[in-house]
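Much of what follows relies on a compact textual record of a protein's fold. A record is reproduced here so that you can trace the correspondence yourselves:
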Amino acid sequence: MLSQLDAHFRPDFAQRKLRPRASDLTGSGHLNLDTSFGPLDVLGEVSGARGFDELLPHTTEVSDFDMKLRVLDLPMLIKVKSEANRPKDRLTLPILMATLDERQKPRSNE
């Protein structure tokens, strides 16, 4: 699927467009990729003990053309970023929380 997205590592100041290999995806690290659809961050591990089976119920499927991806739902993304407590996550938390608040507001029939 990553090849369909024209995924390659970022930043790549030499502009080599190095593509991720299967072995790059099996670790617990974090991959920063650029794709034809924009930036993609691939996490091999989220909040320590949570694995795929624990996170799957907290995902939403997104599709575009022939591709389907599973992404964390907004409440779990907020929880994971809160637990990570990194400076960049602390900066995005107010935006994510405001987005969740907006989504939870009743919609009027205007």
